Amino acid sequence: MSHAFMSPPNAARFVLSNATVPAVTLSGFRGTASEGLVKADIVVADGLMKDILPPGAAPAEFARVDMREGMVWPTFVDMHTHLDKGHIWERRSNPDGSFMGALDAVRTTARPTGRPMMCAGAWNSRCARPTPTAPA
Fold this sequence. Notes:
The protein has one helix at about 100-110; strands at about 15-20, 35-45, 50-55, 65, 75-80, 125-130. By secondary structure, the protein is mainly beta. The longest helix has 11 residues, at about 100-110. It starts with 12 loop residues before the first strand and ends in a 6-residue tail after the last strand.
């Protein structure tokens, strides 16, 4: 049986308490950063983040979800991408869904597009963490 990391409460307003947020995504936050991360309470109202507060500062009457120090990002993030090649090759299907199938599809049919590299935003991401490719 699997369990979701968290399930939001069925409430118009609630708090994601004990969340970890990358400090670089915040402006004017009054909290202490450690290794580029801050702990925060995030107030959600009507499906939108309404406020990011220091831990324990959110209204006590709101329903709460303990994030157990889980990270919260303001948008989708591609945490692993090879920007040097991941967006410059035509897409190919992987017939059997295996790693070797993916390699075979690229080896036999992929050609560079000749177009500029597409940004992560084209795939509904607003941030990417590049993964360096080892020199050949």
